[in-house]
Amino acid sequence: MQPRRAADRPPLSAIDVRPPPAERAEVPSGATGRLTIAEVAAATSTSTHTLRYYERIGLIQPIARARSGHRRYGPDDVRWVVFLRRLHETGMPIQRMLAYATLARRGDATISERRALLEAHRDEVARKLAEQQAHLAGIEKKVRMYEELENQLTEKSGRELSAPAPAPGRQPAAFVPSA
What we know:
By secondary structure, this protein is mainly α. The chain is 51% helix and 0% strand.
């Protein structure tokens, strides 16, 4: 897959880095609008350890605390975690995620820089995806080759192939499950 040329890209005003509405994390029913770390972890498929780590290194802004000292996440915090998870799951290194978070905190003056960072990541993801598709095509070709060989052998012998036949004069080994 070729990287898109600047002329092929959407205009800056059309770029929305927020997850599509259907993918945005929702506040669990019955919640009061502020979520505990456990609720956010469950809603975003992120461990509580990771949420604390992201806050400690600055990927997440310091989270508001209840009087008890427990973290209380708002909807914007949850959406940010969902976005960070997406970046992580697509292979963006933590250092690049930190660079993006730093830019985002500096506001609209960094929109072009954030777009460039995401475009570079998008191009890297597209390159890796194309590479994986090529690997998959090679595996599929090999599977088809084996299917054809099986069909040829079946036609030749007139019987269905199953497990390989034991060597002449030997009994097949019995399957003994390990404990």
